[in-house]
Amino acid sequence: MNEELRLWAGASIRTVLQGQSIIDSPRLQVQSPEEAEAFLECYGFDYNQDEDRREIEAIRQEAIGFIEEVLLEEGEEMPPEVRNQENLLKLLLWVSSPEATPRSRWSCVVLRVMHTFAHCGSYFNERYHDQIKEQIFGRFEQHIRQTSNGTFLGDIELVVYESRSSKSRRSAVLKLLHKAENVAADIFDWLGIRIVTRDPLDALRVLCYLRQNNIVMFANIKPSRSRNSLIDVEWMEERWKDVEDFSQLTADLEKIKSPDDAKRLTDNSFSGSSYKALQFTCRQRIKLQEGEGKQIRFYFPFEIQILDEASYLSNHSGAASHAQYKQRQVQAVRRRVLGSLCKKRPHEIAPGSPGPAEKDPDDKDRDDEIQPAHLRISIQG
Q1: I want to staple 288 with a disulfide (CB 3.0 to 4.6 A). Which of 144, 191, 276, 296 is the partner?
Q2: pTM (2 decimals)?
Q3: Where are the alpha helices (DSSP H) in the chain?
Q4: Where is the domain boundary, 61, 93, 118?
Q5: What domain range is 87 assigned to?
């Protein structure tokens, strides 16, 4: 087969023609150590430079730890030949084998996760994390009052106010591994804020407070990241169209409707249908000054989650709980990363569960804890 036909049949061209992620390709087309070195150089690593080789090895070690501690179940293990192979050129050659073998499949698993860790980072977050956190959280915290009677945002009583200042690399990798895009630019919640109110009406009041006090610039919200599974907007607009003040709505507290399945503004296939919250991603312009008066300006995304107390408690149990959420997420990543090595029993696949390569689930992590795989899934070699 000539070179053009060989490339046409491979995964690289399909990423352009079919929008297929390289993560979903079962093999590469690298036929010699020289091709492997050229492939790596185009990727961004010079295998002849010690610094690049040390970075590659650090990424490989992270990937091995993630596979063994997050994806594999008790009794499952990688073949030592693949697990202990430090020469990335050999892994690239093994994954390019014309015939699928246990060695080529496990090499593919390692490279899939290595690729994701290589893209798992935010330059601005890693370099300026503390300053970014101070500027974003500072806008909120100057409005938070801690009193003997509780926590308040202005005069709105809060059940919980939480700020998450860092997303772990493993949590970011887990998120990226079920996205078709599979690049860290798609992670918008390196920083996050959660506000829990007494009732859904106060959740709306919080939104209004954020706007009235210029805490959040709503013009800088990313619309495709807005999720509403808490309040039925059509019901609210019809019910309250002649109301002039929130205080007139107290009688409606027990009647406030959540969106039904058809109206739920969410496409996160890992959240249970009982999960209720308002979530949106905003960008804030960060202003920094480095040495010699150099000024740096950029926009940085962060996520806000607002929900009422009943929804908060419900979201911590049953299908909507974080543990169940992460379990569904890990199961989907297992199926995608392990590929033909992962065989799931039919009765364990929930109706409507996500396939191995969702186009854009726009996942919304609720915290950074990652649970290992729990369902019994057999590995076949």
Answers
A1: 296
A2: 0.70
A3: 3-8, 11-17, 33-43, 50-66, 80-83, 88-94, 102-118, 123-141, 169-176, 200-212, 233-239, 309-314, 322-338
A4: 118
A5: 3-118
